[in-house]
Amino acid sequence: MNTGAFRQLRWPAAAAGLDALGRLRHVVAGALRTGRPLAVWREPGASTPRLLVARSLEATYTGLSPALDAQAPAGFAFFPFRDSDQNPALFLPADVVYDASQPEIVGVSAAARDLVPALTAWLSAALVEELSWHRSTQPAPHAATESEYTQLVQTGVEAIETQEVVKVVTSRAARRPLPADFDPLVAFAELDRKYPQAFVSLVSVPGVGTWLGATPEILAEVTADGTFRTMALAATQPLTANVTPRTAIWRQKEIEEQALVARYIVSCFKQLRLREYHETGPRTVIAGQLLHLRTDFEVNLQHVPFPSLGTDMLRLLHPTSAVGGMPKVAAMHFIQKHEGYDRAYYSGFLGPVNVAAPGIARLYVNLRCLQVRADEAILYAGTGLTVDSDPEREWQETQMKLQTIAAVL
Ligand SMILES: C=C(O[C@H]1C=CC=C(C(=O)O)[C@@H]1O)C(=O)O
């Protein structure tokens, strides 16, 4: 954790019996009790989660997508599919930070210095059993029936046939009852265990709600050694005993669907006049119980004259054609007109910027996610359509995708 920029509070002797995750839970409880936004996440391949608490809701509103450079503020981005008053773009400033791999300290930013007395007292306070998670003030979205969804796919295929769009990604919400004793932090731990290669997240913001997810898709990453990465992830089939990444065979429809996403990324590089990028793939990758096709793109930022490449690419990429479609504006218009529900933060993006260290940012597409409501969960999934899409198969594909996150219910 980028603790250099933070005042470090040590846990008091009273907390000696609490393990790293117990401490994380206690800081989460304090944030929820005082109405503060928070994010807990575990990066792919990492063994421990991190937590960030913003000092206030007001401090999280942002107009622009985050800058991916070492001088930019540290925080956690939580962006909707489409920015609106109901689903504002948020950037939670890194005011209180906790890294479960360094469980002896809690960091507090200079901007949140006035929180230090209350936080110090809280670290010695008795544990709270029940956490009261932030709720959305928006109504639950409409959950499409099978016939509504297959009709939507049919309309999408017709829009491709009439050349209104080249590709569009349709999606739906599904409502599931919450188990009586559902605990988002326990569910987070289960996602962490089940999906070691996913970006696992739990974000809770007053009025916006509580979102849990385990996404396989990087939107934009900038690493300490000056590398920019993104990926074209699309096409889906179940991972079974007989079909593995080595033996998977893809139909023409799926190859085309993924190639369009890759082409879209290349078009973004072209808009920025960047030619020096490495492209690897497509290859078959595992995401939970599914297989996808993935092409990786990498740029060495030390070798190109584009200091703001990460920031510029992020602004061009979102929403990628893996969640919107192509051409972007026509696909967004189709979705707005026909999908019939509010995606909110599903297929938006999320992740830390300059939290681990200045210059390290990891933003992911918010897929395989759910929204926790008072007594139900809203799950989300979508499918990329091409002219050859079969409505019934696309419905089945959304069912499979919902399974990734439904596993914690
Ligand atoms: C839109 C989703 O997945 C995207 C990412 C991988 C494969 C996809 C597909 O096969 O359609 C989607 O483009 C989702 O999981 O809701």
From TrEMBL:
Domain Chorismate-utilising enzyme C-terminal positions: 146-401
Transmembrane portions of the chain: none
Highest taxon of the lineage: Bacteria
Name of one Pfam family that matches: Chorismate_bind
Cited InterPro entries: ADC_synthase, Chorismate_C
PANTHER family: ISOCHORISMATE SYNTHASE ENTC (PTHR42839:SF2)
Protein name: Chorismate-binding protein
Native source species: Hymenobacter jeongseonensis
